[in-house]
C-alpha cells in the first residue's frame, strides 16, 4: 500500500500473478499481501484450454466462484465422483473441506472466473487431494 492511500481503501490495479498450489493461473486482487485484508481474498482464475486444476481441498474456508467465460466441470466429493458444470453468469459455492477439481471443457478457449474466499491467505491452506486414495462412500455404490 502506498503512503498516498487512505487507510482502509486500497485500489488494486492489476492482479498479482502467483504460482497457485492448484497449478492453474491465479491473479490475486485482494489478499492480506496485496491490501492488508484480514478475512477475505478475491482472485481472477484462468483455466487454459483443456486444462484442469490439481485436485485439492480448502482447509477451513469457503469458496465462491462466478464464471465470466467458458464452461467448467467441477468434480467434487469423495473420490471426485460428483459433477457439476458451470457456465458464464453462473455462481458456484464450495464448502470448506470439500475435495474438488475444476476442468475447462473447451479445447480452444480459456475459462475465466472470479474466486472469492473467506481467508485472506487462502493459498496457505490449500491441501493436495488424491481421489484414488479416498474410499469414503464406496461401500454403498
Model description:
With 141 residues, the protein is mainly beta. The protein has one domain: Jelly Rolls (Sandwich). It has one helix and eleven strands; from the N terminus they run E-E-H-E-E-E-E-E-E-E-E-E. Strands 1-2-3-10-5-8 form a six-stranded antiparallel beta sheet. It has a three-stranded antiparallel beta sheet with strand order 7-6-9, with no helix packed on it. Strands 4-11 form a two-stranded antiparallel sheet. Strand 1 and strand 2 form a beta hairpin.
Give me some keywords for this one.
mainly beta; Jelly Rolls; 6-stranded antiparallel beta sheet; 1 helix; 3% helix; globular
Quick summary:
The chain has 141 residues and is mostly beta strands. The protein has one helix at residues 32-35; strands at residues 16-19, 25-30, 41-47, 56-58, 63-69, 72-76, 82-86, 91-94, 100-104, 111-117, 126-128. It is built from 1 helix and 11 strands; from the N terminus they run E-E-H-E-E-E-E-E-E-E-E-E.
Set out the fold topology.
Layout: E1 16-19, E2 25-30, H1 32-35, E3 41-47, E4 56-58, E5 63-69, E6 72-76, E7 82-86, E8 91-94, E9 100-104, E10 111-117, E11 126-128
Antiparallel strand pairs: 1-2, 2-3, 3-10, 4-11, 5-8, 5-10, 6-7, 6-9
Give the number of helices.
1
Residue fraction in strands: 35-45%
Report the average pLDDT across residues: 86
Q: Which spans have pLDDT < 50 for at least 5 consecutive residues?
A: none
Biggest β-sheet description? 6 strands, antiparallel
Amino acid at each position: 500500500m502506498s503512503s498516498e492511500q487512505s487507510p482502509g481503501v486500497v485500489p488494486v490495479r492489476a492482479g498479482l500473478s502467483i504460482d497457485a498450489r492448484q497449478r492453474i493461473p491465479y491473479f490475486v486482487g485482494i489478499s492480506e499481501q496485496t491490501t492488508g485484508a484480514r478475512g477475505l481474498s478475491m482472485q481472477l482464475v484462468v483455466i487454459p484450454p483443456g486444462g484442469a486444476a490439481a485436485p485439492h481441498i480448502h482447509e477451513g474456508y469457503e469458496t465462491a466462484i462466478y464464471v465470466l467465460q467458458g464452461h467448467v466441470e467441477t468434480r467434487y466429493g469423495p473420490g471426485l465422483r460428483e459433477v457439476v458444470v458451470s457456465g458464464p453468469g453462473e455462481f458456484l459455492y464450495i464448502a470448506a473441506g470439500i475435495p474438488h477439481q475444476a476442468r475447462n471443457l473447451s479445447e480452444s478457449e480459456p475459462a475465466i472466473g472470479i474466486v472469492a474466499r473467506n481467508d485472506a491467505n487462502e493459498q496457505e491452506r490449500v491441501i493436495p487431494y488424491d481421489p484414488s486414495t479416498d474410499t469414503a462412500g464406496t461401500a454403498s455404490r
